[in-house]
Amino acid sequence: MMSDPAGTLLSVRGDARLTVAPDYVILASTIKSSRGSKGEAVRAAASELEHLTAGLASLGGVALAASTERHRLTWSAQSATTHAERAHDEQTGRYEPTGQVIATVAVVITARAFGMLDSLSAVLASHEALNVHQVTWQVDWDNPAWPDVRAAAIQAAIRKGRDYAAAVGGSLHHVEHIADVGLLGGDTAHYAATGFAMAAQDSTGGEESGTPSLDPVPQELTATIEARFTASGVALTGH
User: Fold this and answer.
1) Whether the predicted pLDDT of 1 surpasses 80
2) Burial letters for 92-116: b for 16+ Cβ neighbours within 10 Å, e otherwise?
3) What is the pLDDT of residue 184?
């Protein structure tokens, strides 16, 4: 709270939360093939990827591109690596080469049509070489709920400002500033943005193969703003 010729300045933060349905789900997965040589391992992984994308295409899926970003189902093969397979040797206590080579391909699958999630689970479960290791539910940046939660954060700041003004015998006169967190000065370490969605995740954990649950998880949108008001009629005497 600061004194000003036109009145007393009150600076507050307003916070709001809103739970909404997710817009899409991202499945981070890996195809892994073990063979006697690097070439064989790479060819086997490529064959597994081809069969996987064929299954996704049967559900209406397409490869991710700028023009297909919000398609009902997309996939993207993002990297391929090979390394020598090692296994624990009980005699030496170390992990020794087995003579096999492992090829892995990172695949990211994004689904927006939640009515097909059961069919998608079935396709994924049919590929033993595929490990879905992380499922993340997300909300679009332009989800219609964002304006609502941001407006609620502003209203929360107004209510807080009125409480502060009333505590010193005054009332809010007018709005000086409403800004993203940090633009009015002060600590920005805890609040990095005006709004964000809490992304709920599910993971099969470790290196075990599996298809985790694809039940949509509600998302919490959070908005935080900073506001500065002028309060009139402030009188500390008697308060």
Assistant:
1) no
2) eeeeeeeebbbbbbebebbbbebeb
3) 80
